From TrEMBL:
Gene3D superfamilies cross-referenced by the UniProt entry: 3.30.450.40, Heat-inducible transcription repressor hrca homolog, domain 3, Winged helix-like DNA-binding domain superfamily/Winged helix DNA-binding domain
Annotated family: Belongs to the HrcA family.
Entry keywords, A to Z: Repressor, Stress response, Transcription, Transcription regulation
Domain (Heat-inducible transcription repressor HrcA C-terminal): residue spans on this chain: 115-335
SUPFAM superfamilies: GAF domain-like, Winged helix' DNA-binding domain
Protein name: Heat-inducible transcription repressor HrcA
Winged helix-turn-helix transcription repressor HrcA DNA-binding domain: residues covered: 13-78
Pfam families: HrcA (PF01628), WHD_HrcA (PF03444)
GO biological process terms on file: negative regulation of DNA-templated transcription
Function: Negative regulator of class I heat shock genes (grpE-dnaK-dnaJ and groELS operons). Prevents heat-shock induction of these operons.
InterPro entries for this protein: GAF-like_dom_sf, HrcA, HrcA_C, WH-like_DNA-bd_sf, WH_DNA-bd_sf, WHTH_HrcA_DNA-bd, WHTH_transcript_rep_HrcA_IDD
Length: 355
C-alpha cells in the first residue's frame, strides 16, 4: 500500500487523471477505456496521441494493461489496489439503501441467525453482489434442548439459552427415529446441559457417549450426535457462514470465468480458510478491501472482497460482514454500505446481549 501511494505522489496531474479515469471507466462499464474516450472527458484539452503516451507509461508501471487485442486499457490488480488506497472517493450510503438494510431488524424474532440471514439477503440485494455474514458463536449457558420431528427425513433441534436466546436448526435425523427415541435423546442432553455452554456440552456429550455407549439406546445416541453436529464446525472457528446472492455473481461473470466462480462456491460450501476470513479483519477496525489474490479464499476466482468486522458490547470482534463481487465492484458505494451494515449488526447483538 505504501508503495502505491508513493507512485501516486510521483505522478504529475495529467498521469494521475488519466489513471483515475481509466479505473473509473472500467469500474462503471467493465469495458476497456481507450484514448479517444478520455480526450472527451479530461479536464484539460489534450490529443489522443498524448493520452496514449501517458497510458503507455502507466502500463510500463504495471498499473494498467490491455486485455486481448483491445486498444483500450483496464486496471491491473496492482492498479486497482493503488486506486482504492489513494484515489477512491467514498460517499455515504443513501437513505434508501440504509432503510433497506435497517428494515431487516424488524420483527420480534429472538433468533440472531435468522436476522443475520435477512441482513445478508438485504445487503446482497442492495449491492448486487454476493454477501457474507459470519455469525458469532453463542456461548451463554444452555437452559433447554428439544427435538421435534417434522417429516421422516427432517427434524428440528431447538436450543434455548439461559439469556433467552433461541436457536432453531433443521437437520436429517438417523433412519428409524421414534417419538420415544427423540425424547430419550433430549432427556440425555438436558441432564448434561444445565449451566454449560454449547462447546462445553458438545465435549461432555462425546465423553458420555464413549464411556456409556452400552447404556444409551443406539437411535438416541445417533440422534444426539446428528443433532449436535448442526452446530459443530471444524476447530474453534465462527459458528456459521451465511452466503446470499450467489446468482448476482453469475450474472456479472463472463462465460470464461464461470468455472472460477464455481471454484469459489465450492470453497465457500466447504468453508475453506474460514478462520482466516475472520482473522484478516482483526488487524484493525473498519472496512478492508481485498482484490483478487490478496485474499487466499478468493484468489482462484479473482473476485474482490469488501469486509468489515463487527463487535459486541465489550468491543470484541465476534463476526464479520462482507460483499464479494467481480474486481470491478463499485467500491465507493459498497465500502460505506459494508461499514454501515457491520455497525448495525454490532449494535443489534450488543443490544440483545444487554437485555
Amino acid at each position: 500500500m505504501h508503495e502505491g501511494r508513493k507512485l501516486l505522489e510521483e505522478m504529475n496531474d495529467r498521469s494521475r487523471e488519466v489513471f483515475r479515469r481509466v479505473v473509473e471507466g472500467y469500474l462503471e462499464s467493465g469495458d476497456p477505456v481507450g484514448s479517444r474516450t478520455l480526450t472527451r472527458t479530461m479536464n484539460e484539452k489534450v490529443s489522443a496521441a498524448t493520452i496514449r503516451n501517458v497510458m503507455q507509461d502507466l502500463e510500463y508501471m504495471g498499473l494498467i494493461g490491455s486485455p486481448h487485442a483491445s486498444a483500450g486499457r483496464v486496471p491491473t490488480q496492482m492498479g486497482l489496489r493503488m486506486f482504492v488506497d489513494g484515489l477512491l472517493e467514498v460517499t455515504a450510503p443513501s437513505d434508501q439503501d440504509r432503510e433497506k438494510i435497517s428494515a431487516t431488524l424488524g420483527g420480534n424474532s429472538d433468533d440472531v441467525g435468522m436476522m443475520l440471514d435477512r441482513i445478508g439477503s438485504a445487503l446482497s440485494g442492495v449491492t448486487k453482489g454476493a454477501s457474507l455474514v459470519l455469525a458469532p458463536k453463542h456461548e451463554a449457558p444452555i437452559k433447554h434442548i428439544e427435538f421435534v420431528s417434522l417429516t421422516p427425513e427432517r427434524a428440528l433441534v431447538v436450543l434455548v439459552f439461559a439469556d433467552g436466546h433461541v436457536e432453531n436448526r433443521v437437520f436429517t435425523p438417523p433412519v428409524g427415529q421414534t417419538p420415544s427415541s427423540m425424547r430419550e435423546a433430549a432427556n440425555f442432553m438436558n441432564a448434561l446441559a444445565e449451566g454449560k455452554t454449547l462447546s462445553e456440552l458438545r465435549r461432555d456429550v462425546r465423553d458420555q457417549i464413549s464411556t456409556r455407549r452400552q447404556e444409551i439406546d443406539a437411535l438416541a445416541h445417533a440422534m444426539v450426535e446428528s443433532g449436535l453436529a448442526v452446530w459443530s464446525e471444524e476447530g474453534d472457528g465462527p459458528e456459521r457462514l451465511i452466503v446470499r446472492g450467489r446468482a448476482n455473481l453469475l450474472e456479472e461473470t463472463g462465460q470464461d470465468d464461470l468455472e472460477l466462480i464455481r471454484v469459489l462456491f465450492d470453497d465457500l460450501e466447504r468453508k475453506r480458510d474460514l478462520a482466516d476470513f475472520l482473522q484478516l479483519t482483526e488487524e484493525g477496525e473498519g472496512v478492508r478491501i481485498f482484490i483478487g489474490s490478496e485474499n487466499r479464499l478468493f484468489s482462484l476466482s479473482g473476485s474482490s472482497l469488501v469486509v468489515s468486522p463487527y463487535m459486541n458490547a465489550d468491543r470484541k470482534i465476534i463476526g464479520a460482514v462482507g460483499v464479494i463481487g467481480p474486481t470491478r465492484l463499485n467500491y465507493g458505494r459498497i465500502v460505506p454500505l459494508v461499514d454501515y451494515t457491520a455497525q448495525l449488526v454490532g449494535r443489534m447483538i450488543s443490544d440483545r446481549t444487554e437485555r
